[in-house]
Hints:
The protein contains 5 helices and 16 strands. The longest helix is centred in the first third of the chain and has 16 residues, at 13-28. The chain has helices spanning 13-28, 54-64, 90-98, 170-173, 256-264; strands at 3-8, 32-34, 47-52, 71-75, 103-115, 121-127, 130-135, 140-146, 149-156, 158-162, 186-191, 201-203, 209-214, 219-223, 226-231, 236-250. Strands 6-5-16-13-8-9 form a 6-stranded antiparallel sheet, with helices on one face. A hairpin with a 5-residue loop joins strand 5 and strand 6. It folds into 2 domains: 3-102 and 251-264, Rossmann fold; 109-244, Tumour Suppressor Smad4 (Sandwich), CATH 2.60.200. By secondary structure, it is of the alpha+beta class.
Amino acid sequence: xxxxxLVVHELRQEAIDQAAELAQWxxxxxxxxxxxxxxxKSQLLDLVVSLGGDGSIxxxxxxxxxxxxxxxGVNFGHLGYLTACEPSEVKDLITQVLDGQQxxxxxxxxxxxxxxxxxxxxxxxxxxxxxxxxxxxxxxxxGVTLDGSxxxxxxxxxxxxxxxxxxxxxxxxxxxxxxxxxxxSIQVTPISAHMLFDRTMVLAPSTEIRVEVLGGRTALCNADxxxxxxxxxxxxxIVTASGQVTQLVVPRNRHFxxxxxxxxGLEDR
Length: 269
């Protein structure tokens, strides 16, 4: 018997319907089902099934916290870059995962801490995709310090600090590079920078990145799309590689290049 949690996109009726069907099927198969999944139950799980899109997987990651439980994503969204299968395939894939017949990839995560100049902690969490410091109104100026040494300041709409997994999310929209998801590095990408130097920096995973808002304007710090803190002048956003990882179920026959071709509609020739 396995203990399985379900995370469901609450605005997609087809995902809600399949979650109810899966819960019944899994129970009939002798498994224990937690639906809806709550964070307090995460330590008990053998598998999480996320029904929705990439956002639902990020929600599952948040609910799991330090529990590195494998996540199987079922695509009810549009792009579904992180998902492993389509709705028609989910029962077969769950069976294969529980039988140890599918691959599980460990994905690098980031830890982010937001603190005031006096050291007061405003927020802390771990993310799979990215940390974004972005404007609330006019263009902001942010200073970037790498491993304790000031690097430069950016006049921009914001700054994205992403994992390789997150390179195909917001960072990709901001003209960042596509990085193989199992690679370990940190990408720093300015958003609509008002300066000549506007390229992504791909940094070693050991790098500590400090972002400080300059010039008296406030910004928002978002972690995997969730608001973590309002950042004012003098506050610091500190991003490092996390000691946690996210485990994603990935079909054995799926290669990084195949995912890109499928999700972005690339031609064979």
